[in-house]
Amino acid sequence: MKVEIEAAEIEASLEHAYHHVVKEVAIPGFRKGKTPRAVLEQYVGKEAIRKEALEELVPELCMKIIEEQKLEVVAQPQVEMLQDEPAVFKATFSLRPNVELGDYRSIRIERPFVEVGDSEVDEFMQKLRERHGDWAPASRAAGFEDMVIIDVTQGEKGGEEKSHEGQQVLLVKDSVLPLPGFSEHVVGMAVGDEKEFTLSYAEDYRIKELAGKEFVFKVKLNEVKEKHLPELDDEFAKSLGEGMDTIDGLRKYAADGLKRAAEDRAKKEHESKVLEAVVNSATKIEYPPIMVEQEINSLMRDRDMALRERGGLRNYLKIIKKTEEELREELRPRAIEQVRHELVLGKVAEEENVTVDPAEIEADIENMMKGAGEGNEKLQDLFGTPQARQIVENRMIAQKTVQRLVDIAMGNAVNDPEQKAEAGKESKDGDAT
Description:
It is built from 14 helices and ten strands.
């Protein structure tokens, strides 16, 4: 909205600003707070008092507009002064999102049945063997998957060389470390062998400073080690300390764990498909751009926290040679998706009468504090604030709403929200009796 401020409003605000500023400024020859307005304006400048007046008046006028126009806003209005005489400003109001759902109650998506076969258990058991294997010296030439102890000298072709003794290297086929092809050159060497070779980075290597550069390696092989894997027997099962006495018991334990993990993955994938279908069925999802910017800010904060041990987001951007604005644009599609999902979930929660009891919030907070350990006191202070409790409530409502949509999609829910509310009431009455 474009707003022209009336002269009378400006004058009243200037007078109020004068009474505020005069108490803060000491002027020689006058007691603090008693300086005449004309003198104060000469001393601090008319513009300073006018700025003080507008900083108070403009937000008041914005609030008046919101009330008179009955606007449902989701953020502070953005204000731009257009001219001074007469004073005119432009206020941009971010209005409450408008979401119109499609026929989401007709959506049907079955969750796939999860099975864990013998081959998956066998693969898991093999990984267990490898994890608990022992390295032992081998009297043969080096091969892939061996551990070798080498002395190595390396350096850019024509440049300075660096030497390292007793380096331990696992020879992995197609490994890119320390350079692509290194393991392939060492495979076949025997203890005491020495070898010199040149390796180079590809011209399109992702780190531009290394692209196309050649490095010379001089390698002396000192020792070859091979991994000896334990037998899959009862002794191995007992050695793991999981309370298993037999290998058959360990296999069942592994199978149960693999199935739980597979079911959890299937559940999350199913929830994601259901939510995506509901979002895609919506006929209208309108929201102010500031919501996307706020979501991007949240994603940027999450990145910064995750990278804190590696120097934070700023250091990460230097390494990948990108600006903060470039990263924000990369995150924009994800932010838009999350905003759309949150808005649709909020509308569904409203349609389905999804609520959370205060007791449920208390129980959820208590569970989080139990797992906090030494940070328990800090969490207590945090969750004592209304803002934090609101975040917990919103998260729990979102979780309940997703579950409600899953029930609908699998045909396990009452389709009429009023029937659902009545069913919930009858259930509570039954519990009370």
